[in-house]
Amino acid sequence: MLAIAQFYLSAIVLMLPLLCCVGIGVLWGKRDVPFGGAFITTLVTSVTTPALVFHTFVTTHLDDRALADVAVATLLALLLCALVGALLLKVWKLPVRTLLPTASLPNAGNLGLPISQLAFGDAGLSVAVAFFAVNSFVMHTIAVRLLPGVNTKGSWKSPILLASVVAVALRLLHVPVPAWVIETARMLGAVTVPLMLLSLGHALALIPSTGLRDGAKVAAIRLVVGLAAGLAVVWALDLEPVLAGALTLQMAMPCAVVSYMYAKRYTTLGDTAAGAVLVSTVVFLLLAPLMLWFTHGA
To answer: Which chain regions cross the lipid bilayer (predicted)?
Structure first.
């Protein structure tokens, strides 16, 4: 018990930079200071995150087999989470199509990338980036199609997806990447995590709390079912420890902010999705040190 308490405290100290970035974003939003949210979102999704994905894939020490294992495991875990989540939403008499993306897809960007790097180092970041690339693809091309009135014609041309494909192709073909390209991608990618954390904090500050009751149910699906699905897939595929721990951690992440944005734009349940994001994020941050300890043990 003492060892768990010591790990909890040390994990809190390690997470302070992340929490400070999120906290600054929250204060920024509460004080209603001008915040270029649209610009930051476009910059992160179109430039810095693709650069981070490209740099990580072309420089990672993980072999191609490991990255492929992560991609397959991610798809299986997300599918399992979606199936169980749909069943629970139906049992609780909540609209399945509208809330399933919020319940099943984790925040693999804002929180997943920095926390995986914190927990497992560069190898953890590589796993998280691979997970994020697959999760982003599913979110913007498949899950969003569940919502009514969505036009996703251009979603297949996502810069993140294109960067992933190019980087993987270069790895498979053993094409050398010029040092200046790698350094440019590194510099651009380095600002991704701080911008994501600031944006997360700002979004949390502005999210309405009117949908907390049903949102808490959706949050429970995301956290509990997500963790269980991750553990089940890791056990079934018998992944090596770092891959297993990082994947489990990713599947236990809170609801993605982008799912709330989609729900707000295309449905009448934006407040419920907002409540799910708010509750799941707060609960995850409170339990994050224990989650880090658990995934290291896993």
So the answer is: 7-29, 35-58, 70-92, 123-147, 159-181, 187-207, 219-237, 243-263, 275-294
C-beta of residue 280 within 8 angstroms of C-beta of residue 122 = no
Separation CA 278–CA 23 (nearest Å): 14
Q: Is 284 helix (H, G, I), strand (E, B) or coil?
A: helix
Please check whether residue 45 is in contact with residue 257, taking contact to mean a CB–CB distance below 8 angstroms.
Answer: no
Residue type, 281: T
For residue 107, what are the contacts with CB-CB under 8 A and spacing of at least 6? 200, 253, 254, 255, 256, 257, 281
pLDDT level of residue 6 (50, 70, 90 thresholds): confident
In angstroms, the CA 294 to CA 219 distance is: 20
Q: Are 237 and 73 in contact (CB under 8 A)?
A: yes
Between CA 112 and CA 128 the distance in angstroms is 7
**Which one is the CATH code of 36-297: 1.10.10.10, 1.20.1530.20, 3.40.50.360, 2.60.40.2950?**
1.20.1530.20
Q: Other CB atoms closer than 10 Å to residue 261's CB: what's the count?
A: 16
Q: What share of the chain is helix, strand, coil (3-state, %, to 5)?
A: 80, 0, 20
**Max Cα–Cα distance, the chain, nearest Å:** 55
pLDDT digits (tens, 9 = 90+) for 60-106: 888 888 889 999 999 999 999 999 999 999 999 999 989 999 999 99
Residue 221 has pLDDT above 60, yes or no: yes
